[in-house]
Structures are given as C-alpha cells and as structure tokens.
Amino acid sequence: MNVLIPADELRAGVRRLASELSAAYDDGVVLVAVLKGSVPFLADLVRAMSIDPLVDFLAISSYAAGTGRVRLLKDLDIDVCGRDVVLVEDIVDTGLTLTYLLGELARREPRSLEACVLLDRAVRRIVPTSVRFRGFDVGDAYLLGYGLDFEGRYRNLDMIVQGDLGT
C-alpha cells in the first residue's frame, strides 16, 4: 500500500474545511453524515469547527448490485426543515449516491443544502454533482483509511492509502 495523503496533510485539509464551514454557517448548521465511512472525518471536522453544529446520521445500503440504486437504512432523528444542512461524505465518485442523498434531504425543505466531501474522485463521475466543500481531489485508485475500508478493515488508518489488495 502506498500513502496517498499522509496524516498531517489530512489533518490540515480537515481543519481547512472546518474553517470554511464555520465561516459559512456562523448562525448554525446541521451536519448530516453518512454511516459508516464518514465517521472519522466527521469527528475530526466537528472538533475543528469554531461553531457548535448539530449532528445527525443517515445509513444507506446498495439496493441492487451494479445499478447505482441505494436504499435508506437509517433516517435522520433531527427535523431539518428550515435549517442550513451540510451532507458530510468521505468520498464522492460517480455522484449517484450523493445525488440520491441530496435529493432525499431536499424533500425535507432545508433552508440551504450543501455537500462537504473529504475526497472527490471526479474521474468516475456519472452524474454532474455540485460539491461546495471539497477536501482533496483523488484519482481512480482503490483507497483505504480514515473511514474507507475493505471488508470492514483499514478504516482506522489516520491517512489515505492506495490499496493493492493483491499483496
């Protein structure tokens, strides 16, 4: 495995995003994180923010393999109607999941709705997706660490690595 984003760069990127979010939402914001992969990112992001955001979670699962369809496994506990909402994701690549989740959240009539992603893999984009808060642009390699896993493993790494699972 090769280190793509070392721990110190990752921390700096998260601090930058926290600063941007704090400045944009000084009146408050609801951060909605997608379980499980975004948890390390969310935890560090919230700790680095200068405001006190509300936090809630969604959980999704692939609905049918290879179709790009997802289904909601865990819904929000917080009513986001009339509030500023930021969807927090570890990675966006095809844009299908992000578009689905933003659509689900938009139906709840938030005052504003944006996305904050740690890793943007635009080379795999199928659906045009707007990401206002973006940590790092990444290529098409298989990534592990900081929430990204392979069969539940490697989420605990404090860096992003390119995984070569054959070795």
Element layout with pairings:
Blueprint (H helix, E strand, L loop, with lengths): L1 E4 L1 H18 L5 E6 L3 H10 L5 E9 L7 E5 L9 E9 L3 H11 L5 E9 L12 E5 L5 E2 L15 E3 L5
Parallel strand pairs: 2-3, 2-5, 5-6, 6-7
Antiparallel strand pairs: 1-9, 3-4, 8-9
Helix pairs in contact: 1-2
In short, what is this structure?
With about 170 residues, the chain is of the alpha/beta class.
Structural notes for this entry:
This protein is globular. Helix 1 (7-24) packs across helix 2. The longest helix has 18 residues, at 7-24. The protein has helices at 7-24, 39-48, 96-106, and strands spanning 2-5, 30-35, 54-62, 70-74, 84-92, 112-120, 133-137, 143-144, 160-162. It has 3 helices and 9 strands; from the N terminus they run βαβαβββαββββ. The strands form 2 sheets. A 6-stranded mixed sheet has the order 4-3-2-5-6-7, sandwiched between helices. The chain is of the alpha/beta class and 167 residues long. The chain has one domain (2-62, 73-162): Rossmann fold (3-Layer(aba) Sandwich). The N and C termini lie close together (8 Å).
